[in-house]
Write a structure and sequence with these properties.
This protein is of the alpha/beta class and about 230 residues long. The protein has one domain: NAD(P)-binding Rossmann-like Domain (Rossmann fold), CATH 3.40.50. The chain is about 40% helix and about 15% strand. It has 7 helices and 7 strands; from the N terminus they run E-H-E-E-H-E-H-E-H-E-H-H-H-E. Strand 4, helix 3 and strand 5 form a beta-alpha-beta unit. Helix 2 packs parallel to helix 3 and helix 3 packs parallel to helix 4. The radius of gyration is 17 Å and the shape is globular.
Length: about 230
């Protein structure tokens, strides 16, 4: 039996891509999944739906008014726009910052109040763009560097406070999900060439890493898992 059986997992961005694959993996292991989505009608069967727009602080607070005890939080929701520093749209920067950074941080803080006394887990789905800035990184890459720093800062604070909570990241390279279509908007030819040039990671590949962090024994803590397609150079 999986250690996740009968556990309650709060999962953001649960209706598509990595979130959808992670939800399916959790349910197959007997977990109860609370799935956060702007469009809960898109959630798969077996997920407890929670509607929220993570760009709105009040929506995030309402998520945690609706939940009682949770055993783990998976911060999966994310937005990726190709928006350069020199001429990008500040509205795109703000949306990415609100979802990728602020929402992730606030959800982490609030989740700590809902973990049992025996402990909990926080898994942040980040990106290889949080470890190096690709040529097209724009403002997206800084948001993922922030996720990396927040994860480390949170871990240190948790240890200092003596809380039985583990926190870690999964940082994938290119994953063939709907998020890529946002990232390559206006550059659909480049996306098609990228898909032809490499066998990208699939959502299930990342979901397996999320499950690994959630199922790791309490005496083992994994800080970050970096994974990329074997066809991806950097």
């Amino acid at each position: 039996m999986s250690p996740l059986a009968d556990k309650t997992i709060l999962l953001t961005g649960a209706s598509s891509g990595i979130g959808k694959a992670t939800a399916a993996a959790l349910i197959s292991r007997g977990a109860r999944v609370l799935g956060v989505s702007r469009h809960p009608s898109s959630l798969a069967a077996g997920i407890v739906p929670i509607q929220a727009d993570l760009t709105r602080r009040e929506d995030i607070l309402e998520i945690f008014r609706q939940v009682d005890r949770i055993d783990a939080l998976v911060n999966n929701a994310g937005i990726a726009y190709l928006s350069r520093i020199i001429d990008g749209n500040p509205a795109d920067w703000e949306e990415m910052w609100r979802v990728n950074v602020f929402a992730l941080t606030l959800c982490s803080q609030l989740a700590l109040r809902h973990f049992p006394k025996t402990g909990g887990r926080i898994v942040n789905v980040s990106s290889m763009s949080g470890h190096r800035v690709p040529p097209t990184g724009g403002f997206y890459s800084p948001t993922k560097f922030a996720v990396r720093a927040i994860t480390d800062a949170l871990r240190l604070e948790i240890k200092s406070a003596g809380l039985p909570v583990q926190v870690g990241c999964v940082s994938p390279g290119f994953v063939d999900t709907p998020l890529l279509e946002h990232y390559f908007r206006g550059r659909e030819d480049a996306l098609q060439k990228t898909r032809q040039a490499m066998a990208m990671l699939q959502p299930d590949d990342v979901a397996r890493c999320v499950i690994q962090l959630l199922e790791t024994p309490p005496h083992v803590e994994i800080g970050d898992i970096l994974l990329r397609s074997s066809d991806q150079k950097v």
